[in-house]
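Subject: sequence -> structure tokens, single chain

Hey, anyone have a minute? Need the predicted structure for the following. Not urgent.
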Amino acid sequence: MANKTIMVIDDAASIRQVVSMTLKGAGYDVIEACDGKDALGKLDGQKLNLIITDVNMPNMDGITFIKEAKQLPRYKFTPIMVLTTESQDEKKRAGQAAGAKAWVVKPFQPPQLLAAVSKLVLP
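Reply:
Had a minute. Here:
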């Protein structure tokens, strides 16, 4: 199978590392970004099969990033999963309204993350 590429956006290097290791261990290619602005700069037209973003980050938060990414024709239909410590319903609704397809609350178990990824990742 051709490798699928997933972008992981989180301002915490430790979280990016755990998520990246989990995904790479399952055979995915991973691109890391430290916040929404950094991530938008890395959306250079290459195909992404999934984007995983945190909500609370400096420079550009996850909800704003989702709205911005969905404006780009190349990424309009790219599934986005939110991985965050936030569990309030209003945050989830804001994420869904922006275009997030799933909401996973940290701390997460790698099998739980991979199960969600396998449901969302584009062919």
